[in-house]
Amino acid sequence: MGHGLVAIPRRLYRNANITTRLRRLQSQVPAVNEKLMDSINVLENLESQLTQLRQRKNGISRDHQEWIEEISEGSHLPEARLLSTGPQPPTAAIPAVITDRYLADLARKLNRARHKRLRFIDTWDCLIQDAASTQAILDASASKRLDFGDAAPHSPYLDRLKILTPHTRYILHHHILPKVYIFFAAILSLASICIIWSELIKYLAPQLSIIRFTVVSNRRNEEGKVHFAGQIMASFWMCYMITAALASFSDIKVWGNRALVKRNTYGESATWYAGQIAKLTVPLAYNFLTFLPPDVHRETTFYQFLGQLINLTPLGKGFDFFFPIFILVPVCATLFNLYGRVKGIFRFDIMDDDEEVAFSGGWREGRDLIERELNGSSRLGLSAQQQQQRAGTQSSYRDDAAPSPDNNINSPLNTFPRSVGTTPSSHAPPQRQEPSSRLAAATAAAEEEDENFFQGFAHR
Q: Which has more confidence, 261 or 304?
């Protein structure tokens, strides 16, 4: 939470400057491009192994052949790859004897690699679109007219609804929204200061707590009561504290393997995020109750149900007294960029802070990658549909070069289908049912043998 209390207002303040926002987006492109290429290569390697298994005739039992066919139908391998006799990309060696553990491990790796690729494709598309839109806002300064082009057919209704004229849209994005960002950055900065002050002062001088003053009524005849306005303020404080705690999940490198992807979130990632929210709910709710006077928070339903169990021993009471002081550690580390200094000394990156990269030359490489992507000459060329969706975007990235259709056909993004639920090819073998319990048991056994205690604990 301490990191989010500083990162959220600072991010809004930085986004108010359109040029700085564009540089920051451009600086993120090389890293996302590298991760996307790595995910594509890993998936190609695994699907090449699966293709070799399907072409193999000896050393595989009938049960394993049915299992391989089931995995192949879930992966939707192109028929041309199955029938091709040409040289294949280098892959890991296939064991001479195929076991249940090997097939379960291959199925698990394919599933993770497929979702990882979809995750970075979604990140790449959003990053390119944001960069193109930001560049269009800058380019509209001369003509005072802003047009983002036609929205995608699957975009939300509000994005497809065009109410503003090009000139009004320019005024909104170039003049009004930056001031709105600065306004909310100032409001949230004051809210962060109030939370930190209340954390430090709630036991030394609780009457000076700002959160207590905004929630509990201070009238003489109504002291200790929480009215409807106080409940609204309490909801605002709680929502901001939870948002600040969840904002660090996308910045900390330790949790970089999990992400929420629109319509393609991996089940493991969704479960992990749900678990983090469940784990943060109780301590944040109890921490917020300690801002209020004792005669108020002891009468709440939460304290009677669970809070009194936390405050059961003297150790718990003392822990509540001195532990809030440690919120200054992540606050100071984020405010004074101590994470960047740790990276410079130990060569270990803890947080994703692209401020230094945005002004050190890394944005130039990202600018070239965005230009090649929008012009259709990149290895990660967008599909023809995406090209048409962005046809109306007025950007300095575009020139008179027409996108080559060969780049889209041979693009690695089109090597695999975007949709996991597409219909297999008509030449594919008929579907064979396999008991799900056998696959689940073999997968669980493979995971237990491959992972040690700490890896299994972090995984689950």
A: 261
- 6 — pLDDT class (breaks 50, 70, 90): very high
Asked if residue 42 lies in contact with residue 284, where contact means CB atoms within 8 angstroms, the answer is no
Are the beta carbons of 370 and 397 closer than 8 angstroms?
A: yes
Residue 252's DSSP bridge partners are 351
Asked if 130 and 14 touch (Cβ cutoff 8 Å), the reply is no
The total of other beta-carbon atoms located within 10 Å of residue 289's CB is 18
Sign of CA pseudo-dihedral 20, 26, 30, 33 = positive
Structure tokens at 365: 């490489």
> Closest Cα to residue 369, out of 196, 132, 142, 184?
132
Please, which residues have CB within 8 angstroms of residue 351's CB and are 6 or more apart in sequence? 3, 251, 252, 253, 334, 339
Query: Are 279 and 286 contacting, i.e. CB atoms less than 8 angstroms apart?
Result: no
Please state, in angstroms and rounded to a whole number, the distance separating the CA atoms of residues 8 and 420: 35
Angle between helices 100-143 and 436-450 (to 10 degrees): 80
User: What is the four-CA torsion angle of 243, 255, 122, 424, rounded to 10 degrees?
Assistant: -130
The answer to whether the beta carbons of residues 404 and 377 sit under 8 Å apart is yes
End-to-end CA distance of the chain: 23
130: enclosing H helix or E strand: helix 100-143
pLDDT tens figures, 195-218:
999 888 887 888 888 898 888 887
